[in-house]
């Protein structure tokens, strides 16, 4: 792969943006910014290819010559235009909290060892600049004999979070549905896989 072309430089930036997005898992603000940059670079790639093709006298480059586009890459293109001209990208956070099932239950209640119960829900963030998701609901242990709270917080075993792309219009809702997931990290992974193939196709077609 040549690093002398504009397309190669943009693709390297795109890879870095994808890695930065994967590293951004705890801060809604950082995830949104990394995802927005990834989308911007994903669309900048074709512009760089057009300039390279012209400079190398390889004819007029058309993205449509690549046949591997998917509903996810179409969503990326749509989001970039929306982000620049209409609605900015907004994210929500879906969260699962895993707690142990109490072992001190009354006689007759049997719990399989290692089983947990899960609280989950989605934070629809109005503030897109949060450095961390909201704290959530505090849960307390219940006395199995009296059924009353003990005042002791329950042990939190694990938190799972994923970041959801908010559909800010009916058109966006349809395009997200066609993409098959609302998870921004999965969307980016799918798009990057396609864009890597697109870049390889460009290099083969232009001998770069």
Description:
With 208 residues, the chain is α+β, with helices and mostly antiparallel strands. It has 5 helices and 5 strands. A 3-stranded antiparallel β-sheet has the order 2-1-5. Strands 3-4 form a two-stranded antiparallel ribbon. The model has no long low-confidence stretch (mean pLDDT 87).
Record keyword descriptors for this entry.
5 strands, 208 residues, alpha+beta, 45% helix, elongated
User: What's the main sheet like?
Assistant: 3 strands, antiparallel
User: SS-based structural class?
Assistant: alpha+beta
The span between the termini is 7 Å
What is the 3D form? elongated
- Compute the number of strand runs: 5
Fraction of residues in helix: 40-55%
Low-confidence regions? none
Portion of residues in beta strands equals: 15-25%
The chain-level mean pLDDT equals 87
How is the largest sheet built, in terms of strand order? 2-1-5
| Series of secondary-structure elements, N-terminal to C-terminal | HHHEEEEEHH
Using the CA coordinates, give the radius of gyration.
23 Å
Number of contiguous helices: 5
Summarize the structure.
The protein is an alpha+beta fold and 208 residues long. 45% of the residues lie in helices and 16% in strands.
Topology of helices and strands:
Blueprint: H1 6-23, H2 28-55, H3 71-85, E1 91-100, E2 116-123, E3 140-142, E4 149-153, E5 158-165, H4 170-179, H5 184-206
Antiparallel strand pairs: 1-2, 1-5, 3-4
Helix pairs in contact: 1-2, 1-5, 2-3, 2-5, 3-4
């Amino acid at each position: 792969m040549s690093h002398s072309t504009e397309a190669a430089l943009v693709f390297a930036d795109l890879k870095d943006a994808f890695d930065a997005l994967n590293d951004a898992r705890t801060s809604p603000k950082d995830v949104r910014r990394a995802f927005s940059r990834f989308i911007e670079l994903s669309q900048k790639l074709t512009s760089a290819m057009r300039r390279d093709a012209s400079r190398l006298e390889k004819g007029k480059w058309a993205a449509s010559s690549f046949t591997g586009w998917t509903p996810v890459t179409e969503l990326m293109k749509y989001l970039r235009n929306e982000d620049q001209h209409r609605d900015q990208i907004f994210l929500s956070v879906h969260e699962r909290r895993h707690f142990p099932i109490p072992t001190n239950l009354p006689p007759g209640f049997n719990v399989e060892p290692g089983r947990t119960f899960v609280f989950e829900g989605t934070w629809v963030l109005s503030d897109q600049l949060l450095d961390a998701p909201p704290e959530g609901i505090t849960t307390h242990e219940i006395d199995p004999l009296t059924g009353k709270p003990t005042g002791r917080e329950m042990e939190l075993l694990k938190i799972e979070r994923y970041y959801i792309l908010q559909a800010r219009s009916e058109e966006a809702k349809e395009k997200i549905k066609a993409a098959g997931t609302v998870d921004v990290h999965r969307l980016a992974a799918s798009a990057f896989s396609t864009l890597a193939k697109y870049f390889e196709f460009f290099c083969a077609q232009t001998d770069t």
